[in-house]
Amino acid sequence: MAKAPDNFWIAARQATALTRLRKSRPKNIFKGQVQYDKSEISGVSTVRMTVIPQGASLPQSHAIDETANVNFTRLKKPPALFALNWQKETESRWTLHWSLDSAEQCWGLGERYGGLNLRGRTHTLFATDDDLHIESSDPLYKCIPLLLVQSAGGTYGVFLDSPAPQFWDLDSERNGTANVRLLSRRAWSVYWFARSTLPEIVAAYTKLTGRCSLPARWSLGHQQSRWSYSTERAVRDIAAEYRNRKIPCDTVVLDIDYMQDYRVFTVSQERFPRFERLVSDLGRLGFRVVTIVDPGVKRSAQDATFREGRRMAAFCTTSDGSLFVGQVWPGASCLPDFMKREVRVWWGDKLDFLLSRGIAGIWNDMNEPALFGNQRPLKANAQELPEDADQLFLQYDIDGEIGHFEVRNTYGQQMARATHEALRKVRPDERPFVLTRSGYAGIQRYAAVWLGDNKSWFEHLRLSIPMLLNVSLSGVAFCGVDIGGFGESTDAELLIRWYQLGIFYPFCRNHCALNGRPQEPWSFGPATEQAIRRLLHVRYQLLPYFERLFVEHRESGAPPMRPLAWHYPDDLTARQLDDQFMLGPDLLVAPILQRGKTRRPVYLPDGHWFKFDGGSQVAGGRFHDVEYEMDSVPAFVRGGAILPIAGAVQHTGQLPTAPITFRCYGNRARGRYWQDDGATFGYERAEYNDWTLTLNRGRFSAKCVHNGFASPARRYFYEAAGHRYPLKNLAGSNTD
Ligand code: GLC
Fold it and tell me: Measured from the CB, is residue 678 less than 6 Å from ligand 1?
C-alpha cells in the first residue's frame, strides 16, 4: 500500500482536533449586532467584522488613520474568504479561532520576546513594563494585534482592533488552530486581509493605520543616551568627547535626572543652572537635545503641573471619584487621562516648557503605564475582565467612564499622540521626533519606538533582529533597541558587535542604565573606539539610503528592516532565517551574534552579492562561511544595486554638502536617489528631487524624475568596477 504523505496525517489530526475543539467550546451567548464590510485596500481584499454587544456603542478605533479615507461597503453576510469563527463565551470573554496550515508561520503582533515565528506559543497583549526580558517574558511594552500568517503560498493578515486584554494562542497545542481570547465588554472589530503577498498585506495594514512621516534627518543619526547625564558638565563633556574624537553623533539624550526630583516640566536648578545655554551651545556643535518625559505627575500641592491637572480634572480617578495615585520616579504620582482631548491639549501646551528651551525631541517612557509594585495589574491567565471599578482606575471615552484595562493598550499611544500633536502645533513645518516605549496599532503615526530595557547580553543582541522584524512588520518602521544593552554591563566585544548591527537599526541609539559600566564608544580603549568610529561613519554614509527607505515606507508601507522572505518569498531557506535580514531591497545584514565567534554562516539568496567592505562578487543561492573582523561591516549588497554613499561627516548638519558617490554593484545596476531638506514637510509640497540611477555596461546615468528642491552645491561621483568618476552635474536635467 502506498504510504500516505505526511501532510495527510497532519490534515487528519487537524480535522479531528478541530471537531473536538468545536464540540468542547461553550455556546455562543452573544446578543447584539454584527456588521460585515468589505474594501479593497492597496489591492488586498479586506473584510471587516464589527461586533457590537447589546447596549454598547460603535467601537471608537484608536488605530485607524482617519486621514486615509478607506471606504468600506456593507455586506449582507460574511463572505467566503472570512475564515474566522468567534463566540462570546461569558459576560466579558470572547474567543476567535481559525485553523493554521502546518507550513504557516506567524509573524507580527508588535513587540514579542523571541524569534520571528510566533507559532507554538501564547502571546499576551496587555501593555507591561517588564525589565527582565527572558524567554517567559510575555507581555512587554507594546501591543499591536496584527498577525501575519505566512507561507510559500502567500500571506494573510488578521487585525483585531480592540485595546482590551488579549491572549493569542498560536497553536501552542500543536493541533493547527489559532485561538484568541479577548476580555472586553465593548464593541470590537476584526479585519481579515485576504491572502496576498507579504508586502501587499503590510501595505494594506499601514494604509489603514498610517505610516510614519519622513523622520527628521538628525533623528536618523547616532544618538547618545545614558541614565543619566545628570549635570551640565557631564552633558558638555560627552558632546566634547564626540567632537574631539571625531565620532559621528547628532543627539544627546537627557534621562530623568535633568529634572528637579523627577518632577515633569521642571529642570534642576542646581545641576542644570543654565539649561537653555547648554542646549544652544550644544546646537552650535551640531547636537540636538532630546529629553525624557514620563506621564506620572507628582501628587504634591507644591507642584504646578499637579495643581493645574487637578483643577481641570486631568487625572485618572478610581471608582469612588478620588485621584488614582501610583508610585513612579517622582514618588506618589497621578496619571493624566490622555483619552480626553482637553488633557492631550493641556499636556501639549505644558511641553512648551521644554520646546521653548530648544529641546528638539521628546522621549515618552513609563507609559504602559508603569507603576512600581504593580506592573502586572491583571492576572497572567485571566479568563474574565474585572468590573470597571476594579480595573485600577477609570478613564474617559466618548461614551463616558470606562475601566482602564479596556483601553490600557492605548495609554502610551495617546500620550505619544499628545506629544506629537504638540510638536506639530509649536513647529508646524518641522518633522517631529517622538520616541515611545508603549504603543498600540497605528503608533507609527506619532512616534518612533525602542524595545525598552534589554540587557548587555549577546542573547539580546541576537534577539533584536527578529524582535525588530516583527515590530517592523506590524507597521512600525522607525524602531531600534538600546545599542550596547541597557541593563548590566557591556564589554568591548559586545559593544563592537552591537554597533556592527546597530548601525543598521532605523533608530540608532546607545543607551545604558544607571549601574552599568559606561558604554560610550571610547569607554573600552582605542581599538574599540576606532572600530566603532568606522562603523558609525558607515551609518552616516548610508543615511541617503535610509532616507530613501523611509520615502518608500511612505509610498508603500515597506519597513526598512525586512525578513528575507519579503524579497525572496519562494526561497524556503530564506523563510526560516531570523538571524539575518534585509535593510531595504539592497542590503543583507548578517552580523556576528555570539561571543567569541569571528565567523558565521551567511545565507545569500539567488543572484550575486558583494561584501559591503569590498571584494569580488559572491554567488547567491547558498550559505557562505564568512569571517568578520572587529571593524567589519557585516553586510552584503545585492548585485545590480546602486547605493548613494555620503562622504564623511560628524553630524547630519554637514550632510547636505558632503559629496555623494553612487556605488554601483555589477555591470548593470539600478538605484534611486532622493534628496530633500531632511527637516521640513517641504516634501509634501513637492520640494524634493527624485532620481533614477542606471549603470549599463559601464555607462552611468541619472534621470531626474522629479525636480523640486534646490539642493546646496555638493560633488557627485559614481563608482563602478573599482573606479570612481566625477559627475559633472546632478541638478535638474539628465546626467551622463
Ligand atoms: C526606564 C526606561 C529606561 C530609562 C529609565 C530611567 O527603565 O526604559 O530607558 O533609562 O526608565 O528613566
Answer: no
Q: pLDDT tens digits for 638-691?
A: 999 999 999 999 999 999 999 999 999 999 999 999 999 999 999 999 999 999
Q: Which of 516, 519, 518 is nearest to 502 (CA)?
A: 519
Give the pLDDT confidence of 17-47 residue by residue, as tens digits.
556 656 677 889 999 999 999 999 999 999 9
Cα 134 to middle of ligand 1, angstroms: 18
Distance 264 CA to ligand 1 centre (A): 15
Q: Give the integer Cα–Cα distance in Å for 475 and 389.
A: 34
Mean pLDDT is lowest, of 55-64, 191-200, 241-250, 496-505, for 55-64
Burial class (CB in 10 A: 0-12, 13-18, 19+), 710: exposed
Catalytic residue among 365, 529, 547, 586: 365
| pLDDT tens-digit series, residues 295-336 | 999 999 999 999 999 999 999 999 999 999 999 999 999 999
255 lines ligand 1 (CB under 6 A): yes
Compute φ and ψ for 692, nearest 5 degrees: -105, 125
Is 349 catalytic? The answer is no
Do the Cβ atoms of 728 and 735 come closer than 8 Å?
A: yes
Cβ atoms of 552 and 558 closer than 8 Å: yes
Does residue 129's CB lie within 6 angstroms of at least one atom of ligand 1? no
Burial of 102 (0-12, 13-18, 19+ CB in 10 A): middle
Distance 128 CA to ligand 1 centre (A): 14
Of 368, 406, 520, 529, the active-site residue reads: 368
- The sheet carrying 689-696 orders its strands as 668-675, 689-696, 699-707
Is 368 considered catalytic here?
Answer: yes
Pocket of ligand 1 contains residue 453 by CB under 6 Å: yes
Distance CA 350, CA 410 (A): 21
**Is 482 assigned a catalytic role?**
no
Give the integer Cα–Cα distance in Å for 719 and 721: 7
Q: To test the ligand 1 pocket, which listed residue (230, 259, 292, 449) has its Cβ within 8 A of the most ligand atoms?
A: 292
C-alpha 465 to ligand 1 mean position (Å): 21
Q: Give the three-class secondary structure for 633.
A: coil
